[in-house]
Amino acid sequence: MTTxxxxxxxxxxxxxxxxxxxxxxxINDDLLAVFEPxxxxxxxxxxxxxxLMSDRFVDMIRRRRSTQxxxxxxxxxxxxxxxxxxxxxHHAGLITxxxxxxxxxxxxxxxxxxxxxxxAVQALLPIALSGLTARETAWIVQDLNQKLTRLIDRPPxxxxxxxxxxxxxxxxxxxxxxxxxxERASGRRARECDLADPFVDLLPALGMDRALDVVTAVLTxxxxxxxxxxxxxxxxxxRQPKWAHRLTVELGKVDPDEFCAAPVxxxxxxxxxxxxVLRMWSPPLLLMRHARTSFDLGSTTLExxxxxxxxxxxxxxxxxxxxxxxxxxxxxxxxxxxxxxxGRGCYVPFGWAPKKCIGADIGTVQLMALxxxxxxxxxxxxxxxxxxTMAYRFAPVPQEFHGQLTLR
Length: 408
Ligand code: HEM
Known about the structure:
Blueprint: H1 7-21, E1 24-28, E2 31-34, H2 37-47, H3 57-61, H4 71-85, H5 88-103, E3 110-111, H6 112-128, H7 134-151, H8 159-186, H9 198-201, H10 203-206, H11 208-223, H12 225-239, H13 241-252, H14 256-261, H15 263-266, H16 268-280, E4 287-290, E5 295-296, E6 301-302, E7 307-310, H17 312-316, H18 360-376, E8 378-381, E9 390-392, E10 396-398, E11 402-407
Parallel strand pairs: 2-7
Antiparallel strand pairs: 1-2, 3-11, 4-7, 5-6, 8-11, 9-10
The structure holds protoporphyrin IX containing FE (HEM).
The site of protoporphyrin IX containing FE (HEM) has 27 residues, from helix 6, helix 11, helix 12 and helix 18.
């Protein structure tokens, strides 16, 4: 795919073409844009139907089949575990971990994008993989941070030396995951209530390499979108003082224990705010996929093996589906408003079944918990907040977003 000189221009071009061509169009000879809600839903459903995990590396070399593991089975294990993690106690843990991360930077002039990323990763890591030593945690976090740094276009270095370092950090994080799984299986390490644990019992069927892939999928997922969404949440809180005030009033009346037990129910305005942040600034911007089968999309056919791209962001900013699509207004999610979603398929920050994000609920709670801390515990000071702009990287990322956090 040829990318024009600047990612913001590229996104702008895609939006213009999408509006002119009805949401489904060829970006180039190899890549079909599917930015129309119904088509995106249908393509996702058909493309992933009956998806199996790839064969193990060792079996590929020996040209034999591995034990077949449906991807739906992996997702069921994750979802069952997430259900047990959706408690007041675990939600309180999220808040505490974010608070500890932010407290460590009180009074400093800090890069708020990096702070948001760090707070999100530190809050979510124990949900993905817990019971780590301080050193193991540092190694995993270093790997997630270096991947994110690449994605948000702040290359820490280039050249062979940098590539080797990048690979070494990634390899070391993989070794940590393997060791954790192996030691839990042999009883040398305690079992934990996290998203990795179900795969300890499935090790005989999966093999270590596929179990590593499954755990890495969750680690990668918590390393990207949640931090980007947290940065966008801070961005809107800094730029929308009226909304920040409304949230402070709502959250000031909420009992903290009740908030932890049922955040969406106790703080509906804060929930709408988070939903609107995720509509305006959905991460990741583009989901690149390969067609596993051929589809007839009416206006065109997508043949097996060709690429297509989905984008919650494009649908959320499409004026055909959202009135005042570029205006930040959480109240559009109140029932019956004229500028609300035109249908269920128009609001898709967590993607499409059967690959839809498994962390939608916990991700939403984490962003609401961030709002809680920002409105109840901290004062966020961003000089010239109205001049901070968003750049389109792997996700929308606020530029030159520096500020200071003090206690209220
Ligand atoms: C606000 C935060 C988050 C956003 C915006 C987000 C968004 C997304 C999106 C758009 C996808 C791709 C869906 C598709 O292909 O149709 C995805 C996949 C995924 N997300 Fe999230 N996510 C968030 C938080 C989380 C969290 C907290 C977790 C884990 C606890 C998580 C775990 C995953 C996993 C494992 C997948 C891959 C699912 C699969 O391949 O079957 N996400 N996410």
